[in-house]
Amino acid sequence: MDQKGTKVGGSIFDDHGRRHGAVELLNRGEPKNLRVAVHATVERIIFSSNSISLSAIGIIYSDSNGKNHWAYVHIIRESVLSFISLKISVIHPQPNIGQFMYDNPRNFINILPPSPLDLSSLQIVGITSDFYIEALSYNVPANPKYLILANIAAKVPGPLSYGSLRLQSSFDVKIVPNVSFNYFIHPMDLARCVSGMRKLRDLLKTDSLEPFKTNSSSGTEGFKFYGPSLPVNQTDNASFETFCRSTVATFWHYHGGCLVGKVVDGRLRVMGINALRVVDGSTFNFSPGTNPQATLMMLGRYVGLTVLQEREVCEG
To answer: What angle do CA 271, 88, 286 make, to 5 degrees?
Structure first.
């Protein structure tokens, strides 16, 4: 499939430009069978074991006040988790949990334009085989002058580089884990970033971006950058490689840690444990498209229907 071209919508917008979130899917739920806990954090999975099997029978979660709550499932039903890559090897050995952690590199430039900009979110994406180009405008919260910047970013698809996640605490999930994504450890990711930065350089030379210059200098010299600018030496790859490594940031599309075939099976069931599935981006070995939100919503519905169908078979 040829994915080159442009894509409209990094999120879900209607014909009137209004943005819609996944929470609106709750409107189609059955209120009598649906309870939503906001600002809730899963603290523990409750297991039941016998001589031949280990099963998940519920969870313990805390609310915004720190109070714990218990939620149990019926014996033929399942717990479905949507949190990423937590190590439960104390209960059942899973050496691949937290391994193969991916994060799409984001490298960018910020331009301070001569005239004020309106705030805008990502709506148009330029897609090539090596990188995606996205643009937005945003304000700098910590700056008292309320600066609004033009941001142009390149995202490396995939990626091929990966790292790992390890919990710092086995009893408090609120303690931030140790995560390493090993950006650009795979040479192909670095080469794609260099291609993306060269494309940013070419974009800065176009007539469309002339209004964003603060003076009439040619090339990239007429722009006022907020933060790092593209390297001065643009004749070789080495300077761009250094720029990629020194300015890399997350695109917030991190994934992996509970991969299919390593931690969960083809139906996203945790291998070695009954009645427990993982349904989120931790099962992905690459981030689909420019934004994984729609894919994750589709996956959630697919797995939900699968669970219902399997339950009907069990109930006969």
So the answer is: 65
